[in-house]
Specification:
Elements (H helix, E strand, L loop, with lengths): L9 E3 L8 E3 L8 E3 L1 H6 L13 E5 L3 E6 L11 E7 L11 E2 L1
Length: about 100
């Protein structure tokens, strides 16, 4: 479980092995999920990852779950959860909350 206090926080993920975190105080519009290196390690173009569904958000009872799906929303592979943003909805997130 990750908790940061104050300021603008960056949560950096470099590999799918870094995943499985729960962030308890992510603030859309202030904090940033940095997935650039993680996506590059999987051969995913960060510039189109959101539009292609290679970075996705799924609602859960506890908050938004951010996942990576290497073949996007149209392929047969499933998204792999990277981080849960407790108390945040998918609707509250925008492209500005990611560094891809």
């Amino acid at each position: 479980m990750l908790f940061r206090s104050g300021g603008r926080n960056q949560y950096v993920y470099q590999s799918v092995l870094d995943g499985g975190d729960v962030i308890t105080d992510f603030r859309p519009g202030r904090d940033l999920l940095v997935l650039r290196d993680l996506l590059a390690s999987l051969g995913i173009n960060g510039g189109s990852a959101l539009a292609n569904g290679q970075v996705d958000c799924t609602a859960s009872a506890s908050g938004a779950v951010i996942g990576v799906d290497t073949d996007g929303r149209t392929g047969p592979l499933r998204s792999r959860a990277i981080v849960q943003l407790r108390g945040v909805t998918c609707a509250a997130l925008s492209a500005a909350d990611y560094a891809l």
